[in-house]
Specification:
This protein is α/β, with parallel strands linked by helices. 37% of the residues lie in helices and 19% in strands. It folds into two domains: 26-137 and 262-284, 3-Layer(aba) Sandwich (Rossmann fold); 141-260 and 293-321, Response regulator (Rossmann fold). The protein has helices spanning 36-39, 43-52, 72-85, 97-101, 144-154, 172-185, 198-211, 222-226, 228-238, 248-252, 262-277, 299-304, 311-316, and strands at residues 26-32, 61-67, 89-93, 109-113, 133-137, 160-165, 189-194, 215-218, 242-244, 256-260, 293-298, 319-321. Helix 4 links the parallel strand 3 (89-93) and strand 4 (109-113).
């Protein structure tokens, strides 16, 4: 089992900082289904959002951060530990959402979900979640056409594209339907490959290599996110430009991403926390979609694949990656 640590998210400071006695201390838990490294770039944005609402670690706020490292069993164990501490709110993402929402008795949950929270069973609807959870969904289907258009601009010969996704991802059927519609609109032939784990993904990639598509579109589910680096190596080896929805993909070596600006999303989570701490019921707070999007290009990958990026794409990019990725 992972060792339990309290995490002062802003600077990773020691928990020895005293809490001022005159302030009410709000205890918040953060349960991530992924790794500490996955969350680390975005936690300062969450802390900044909380500070704007008047919450400061070491004064009136304590945050307990735990990481399941993509283990469903570990996520359930950590959720049970968190429940015994009775925090005012649980912030959850990835594989941490389901165990957080399933606690009995229920605790308020604010989630950041890459899929459809209705399909996942976390809420009744976007407008009226109805239970003990609310938050933000990153499944912005209207961005898929733009993502594919950008890939086609970078790769004008794009005629056949490979889709890769996990069928276990909530909202996958919606994203697949939207992706097929976008491909049809652009006159692109689709080959769909699904995988539930790294072993199945390896077999799917064998089929992709045999088909030799002109490009690839990756859904931003937990499997693809967790495997983004070996996937980038595969596509680079085979000269297949790939696109996805999150900036972590081009940072890892994929050609481009177009999707939610996740620092803004993490900062927005503070709004939900504040409302709940002030007495609102999670079930009365509508689910939100991202309001800010970004285009990220990996210029080094483009050069390695002999992809000539139009100047227009580079000028529109919010960020250009020139290094080997992180």
């Amino acid at each position: 089992m992972l060792s339990r640590r309290r995490l002062l998210l802003a600077l990773g400071a020691s928990l020895a900082i005293p809490v001022r006695a005159q302030s009410k201390v709000h205890r918040i838990a953060f349960l991530s289904g992924g790794t500490r490294a996955d969350a680390a770039p975005f936690l300062p944005s969450l802390v900044a959002g909380l500070r704007e609402f008047g919450y400061r670690e070491g004064e009136n706020l304590l945050i307990d951060g735990r990481y399941a490292n993509y283990s469903a069993q570990e996520a359930s164990t950590l959720a049970a530990e968190i429940a015994r501490q009775k925090p005012a709110v649980i912030l959850a993402n990835g594989g941490g959402i389901a165990p957080a929402c399933g606690l009995a008795p229920a605790l308020p949950v604010v989630f950041l979900h890459s899929g459809d929270p209705v399909d996942a069973g976390f809420v009744d609807s976007y407008a009226r979640p109805g239970g003990n959870a609310t938050g933000i969904s990153l499944l912005a289907l209207d961005l898929i056409v733009k993502r594919m258009e950008l890939l086609k601009l970078a790769q004008p010969k794009l005629r056949r594209i490979a889709f890769l996704a996990s069928p276990e991802h909530a909202g996958q059927r919606h994203e697949l339907a939207a992706s097929h519609a976008a491909a049809k609109q652009l006159g692109i032939e689709v080959r769909y490959h699904e995988a539930r784990n790294p072993a199945e993904l390896a077999k799917a990639l064998e089929a992709v290599a045999a088909e030799r598509p002109d490009g690839a579109l990756l859904f931003s589910d937990a499997l693809m996110v967790g495997q983004r680096r070996p996937l980038a190596e595969f596509f680079l080896k085979h000269g297949i430009p790939s696109a996805a929805g999150w900036s972590g993909f081009p940072d890892a070596g994929h050609l481009l991403s177009y999707g939610p600006e996740r620092h803004a999303v993490w900062k927005r989570l503070a709004y939900f926390v504040d409302r709940i701490l002030k007495g609102s019921r999670p079930g009365d707070l509508p689910i939100e979609l991202p309001s800010a999007v970004e285009l990220v290009i990996n210029r080094r990958t483009a050069a390695a694949m002999n992809v000539s990026l139009p100047q227009g794409i580079l000028m529109r990019a919010d960020r250009v990656v020139d290094g080997p990725g992180v």
